[in-house]
Amino acid sequence: MKRFGFITIAALLFLTACAPVFREEIMKNSTLNPSLIELNSAPADFQDKLFLLGGKIINTRTTKDGFVIEAMYLPVNSRGHIKSSDKYEGRFLAILPKEKGMLDPMLFRQGREVTIAGMYKGIRTQKIDNLEYGYAYFQIVGVRLWEERIYYYGAPYYYGPYPAVYFWYDPWWPHHYHRWR
Question: What's 35's domain CATH number?
Fold first, then answer.
């Protein structure tokens, strides 16, 4: 009996770990990883279509229309999880109307990763410094904010009961420890 309970719990944990980011209805009806170049070249062809895309937040702000996320595009896999990519695809804007809720700029801050399910609404032109830029513009249907990644390089301290044994030699070791956020 204990074995059956363990297998059941393990199966449930496994199934929830592989769950898609959004409801099945959104996942089926959305197009994954749209090409922002194609969207911007023919906006009328894609008007009001549902897309699923990822991004790294550049800025979140409030406007009279609602809450706007400006993000750098990142591709997602078939379940909506962000894939790492070094290829630059461009930037996009996603808006959540005020009547549908709120995006706290402290949570949705620069550097965080998001997956967005959004209806394509067209192009919005805004400035990046002194340059006019045409952003692909989406109205948010669903948004998933991912956990922040913290990278550690090297072990700063050792508190074990035995002496620390390191397998490398680096006379400048204290100077190369960094905590990235």
Answer: 2.40.50.140
Convert the pLDDT of each residue in 137-154 to its tens digit. Answer: 999 999 999 988 776 665
Sequential DSSP letters for 125-149: EEEETTEEEEEEEEEEEEEEEPPPP
pLDDT confidence of residue 88: 83
Q: Which residues is 1 bridged to in the sheet? A: none
What H or E segment, with its residue span, contains residue 8?
helix 2-17
Provide the domain count of the chain.
1
Decide: 36 and 43 in contact? Cβ < 8 Å: no
115 burial type by CB count under 10 A (0-12 exposed, 13-18 middle, 19+ buried): buried
Single pTM value for the model: 0.71
Q: Which amino acid is at 76?
A: V
